[in-house]
Amino acid sequence: xxxxxxxxxxxxxxxxxxxxxxxxxxxxxxxxGSAGAAANLTPEQIEYMQMLGKSPEGAGSSKAGFPSPxxxxxxxxxHLSQPFYDNGPNDKGIGIQLGWSLLRVAAGxxxxxxxxxxxxxxxxxxxxxxxxxxxxxQVLKPISPLAWMPLALYTIKDSSVSGIFVIFICSxxxxxxxxxxxVAGVKRDWINVANTLEVSPLRKALxxxxxxxAPTIFTGMRISMGIAWLVIVAxxxxxxxxxIGYFLWNEWNNLxxxxxxFAILTxxxxxxxxxxxxxxxxxxxxxxx
Amino acid sequence: xxKLPRSLTAAAYDADRPLQLxxxxxxxxxxQDHDTxxxxxxxxxxxxxxxxxxxxxxxxxxxxxxxxxxxGANTVRAAIASVLPLGALQAMAQEKGPLExxxxxxxxxxxxxxxxxxxxxxxxxxEAEGLKAEVIKTANWALIRDKMIHGEHDVSHFLSPQPIAxxxxxxxxxxxxxxxxxxxxxxxxxxxANKHKDxxxxxxxKGMKFAVPFEHSMHNFLLRYYVAxxxxxxxTDIQIRVVPPPEMVANLRAGNIxxxxxxxxxxxxxxxxxxxxxxxxxxxxxxxxxxxxFGASEKFIxxxxxxxxxxxxxxxxxxxxxxxxxxxxxxxxxxxxxxxLNQPEIVIKQVLTGRFADGLGNIQNVPARADxxxxxxxxxxxxxxxxxxxxxxxxxxxNYQQLAQQIFLxxxxxxxxxxxxxxxxxxxTRKFTIMGKEFDPSQPKAYLNSFAIRKAx
Lengths: 289, 457
Hints:
The complex is a heterodimer of chains A (289) and B (457). By secondary structure, chain A is mainly α. Chain A has helices spanning 2-29, 43-51, 69-81, 94-125, 127-140, 145-156, 159-184, 188-196, 201-239, 244-253, 257-285. In chain A, helix 4 packs antiparallel against helix 5, helix 7 packs antiparallel against helix 9 and helix 10 (244-253) packs antiparallel against helix 11 (257-285). Chain B is of the alpha/beta class. Chain B has three domains: 7-84, no CATH class; 103-186 and 290-357 and 368-449, Periplasmic binding protein-like II (D-Maltodextrin-Binding Protein, domain 2), CATH 3.40.190.10; 188-285, D-Maltodextrin-Binding Protein, domain 2, CATH 3.40.190. The model of chain B is unreliable at 1-7 and 37-42 (pLDDT under 50).
């Protein structure tokens, strides 16, 4: 009962915050109303205003300033009402763009899993390797995804594979470190029991260490997924072609803040959904000692 | 490499036999083809072109045979191919040969400079040549360069100095690129932030920050030339940064830069957004200066000469249409949508028609603001090389004329123009006047030495 009311309260506060935010936004973007008199303008002045994208009657301009909530809502509706249109290679619907981004993230992330989890396992089980590889991991871990890009483009010679590589290289470290940490932290007692029972090494790894380290490994995967989603936007802005990052860049190109805002919101929502997926996976493997 | 050897070609590079173009039977075919004359005419004409070249180079057969024995057939062939655009010549001779490749990828930067390349797509010029072209918007010039080096794009929109820099291996791995046509002439401007409305004299620009789209660009060279003519050293007195064209307006608004010499529509867009004004059009510095180019790698030209020729025709037709001011309104409408430039139509229209708001409250009428003269004059390349040398991008001494001849394919361009019935000017070089100073392409060194302000070397 108490728990339920807490949730209701939290929802109420979230909603109030949202309403305040929108109210402030619409207050700030309300047309300050420059009611210019059109009567005493020469034809040339009228043409000049039209060239700047303003209507000579002084009733607001058609150009892209900061949008009001209603303009933003209209843009969101327009994008979501036809998410899969395809007007050629440089103009596709938001659904297609998101699909491309998710595909790249999935490819890079899966590659990272394939490398990080087995390697993390080995490092975690051997204190010697842990110490030997640590300096490399510490140096490579903090490198920004964009710093990798020129190198990747030069060596891989393919821009879309470079994008996937950059996701891979940035999402591999948290997973590696967490896996190693989780594996190294498995209770000695459990391993000793397994040793006493003369369990084969493979069985020991899969049936004792893996379940014990799983929560830490999934934490690493969750962090990595968050990073991969951050990286994809930057990579696509740089490499272009398709994806939500390219969409954002293309609309920046057009200085359309409405569409940029829409892209930001989309990135946020998709990122949240991805995070929640991993949170629920994490919950499934958590155990109580 | 182009596909060879075939009968007559093989004979041309055969050190052990005499080279006879005419059979002893009296017919116009090589003697060794006497039996297999049923060969395709096309293959034969390819052979004949190459054999004719070899024959012309070595009129005395004994000399040819000794020479081939001494250095080997492949060396000679490579040497000839490097001087003469054999692939292109062969393609030309065949009129419209079968396309080696119908799906072509064409890279572009979303600016009005690329108008002929872009508009050929919605207007169906590529399709008319039997090509399934994809025009791909690319984020910045470094990526245009990298995608061409990797072969991700078949042909591309380039800054006209870019193929020269790439062929020389400046700022990237060396990759031989060729300029097929110039995309556009004029059409750039110096835009300044509104706060500099009363600061129009370049002598007072010390310490200001400017943006150009790329190091190896006409924008960079023209901006440097302009401030240097006004007594400022562009390397020490002002700051020049590389900013991709689409990001210039945002940076100007944010106050990161004081101005830029950039491509349109971003000069006009700054006026439209009321963050800047047009200080001058580059037409006022050098009327008819080249800006961007349409080019391909040497490898693509040799591997797919017919496809390259088809692209050549499509782009030249497009240029012709773009040059006619009567078409400019329709072109603005065709290239403004999100798939191409993604800009308000009114902005593009002002750029292309030359009737525009300058950001200072005036409407200017400059019909020649942007033009699309496709001829890749070799003297343009020579001028670019002198500026590369002047500002220290090019360290070693080069043969200006030879490089210009190799990279700017004016002979090919003129042949295609003639075939399309376009007016073709004489010669391969022209003198230019830049800010009142004459440039004589035959004296590049003297020209270079005439500048007081240059990078100390």
